[in-house]
Amino acid sequence: MINRVILMVIDSVGIGEMPDAEAFGDKGCNTLKSISTTEGGIRIPNLEAMGMGHIDGIDYLDKVSVPTGAVARLGEASRGKDTTTGHWEIAGLRIDTPFMTYPDGFPPRVMDLFEERIGRKTLCNKPASGTVILDELGEEHMKTGMPIIYTSADSVFQIAAHEDIIPLDELYSMCRIAREILMGEDQVARIIARPFVGKPGAFERTPNRRDYSLKPFEPTVLNALQDAKLDVIAVGKIVDIFDGYGITEDIHTVSNMDGVNQTINYMKKQNKGLIFTNLVDFDAKFGHRRNVEGYKTALEEFDARLPEVMAAMNDDDILMITADHGNDPGYAGTDHTREYVPLVIYGKSVKAGGNFGTLKTFSDIGATIADIFKVPATENGTSFLSRL
Predict the structure, then answer these.
(1) Which of 38, 116, 196, 335 has CA atoms 20 to 30 A from the CA of 22?
(2) Residue 98 domain-assigned?
(3) Per-residue model confidence (pLDDT) at position 131
(4) Is 163 within a domain?
């Protein structure tokens, strides 16, 4: 009997190119390999003990004689490589029509209306690295009060503003306005508030980021759990990714380690159902910034916390660790990469050493969670509960 699933998304920790990666401009990408094969290697003994090195295609991590957990490699069935697509697929949806992207910036019909609604002119309006654009336009933003609008290869409308120039409440209001505008033919997956502080030459993003996503177009396994009066606890940006749809309780976090802390706090409480956690630092702080050493250190720090997570588990809990896409810090550009993702499963009821090979969709996770709690599943994914 399983009474609770702890699902942790180590955001962007992909494990190698998908067969269609070239169509996404990502041939040869491999996030985990890039950070594991640097000088000195990587120390993730807890993930390796669970069986990470036994996953299909991973030949650069240590294998153990008998893993303590079960593992699989997951392919992405949806057409995308962004956060929303990955998480929605985990929860049981499939996105066949990619969200809109704007490689040339947003058109006048969007920007003119946005500026009229917020009462300010804007800067930039082009694809850009979030940290580079602060160096380029941060000082001008502080002088003029114009928010910095930028996008990327992903379906995002990002608003960067200094917290001393545009207060957080106003920045969040701007995001809600952008969310209203960027629907229909101009629909994007996420509007992202990117607040920062500091002085020219030393700007720093703050933890007050917020994501304003679309509501999923169909119910997910989260809704099925909620309808069954089970807990669906969102830690980190999960609540934003699903626009609160199917979430019963949530908490934002300021870092990976805060995300681990909040997950453990919820594990120590009396709840039944799903604790769904996103650890975004891998992606936001290290993948997009192509910081290989920082990424490696962050994964080692997460691995070092796993004994605490395992110690907080009840006998009827299972832990699932996966990712939502890749973001290879050793690859060209600054955008997500189209990759397989890992799945590591651990718990007293999990058969040690299980290897499910390569599964076709992230939705197998959602289908399995539905099977565990005997709630309706979506039409996507196949449960692997009988193999646990």
Answers:
(1) 38
(2) no
(3) 83
(4) yes
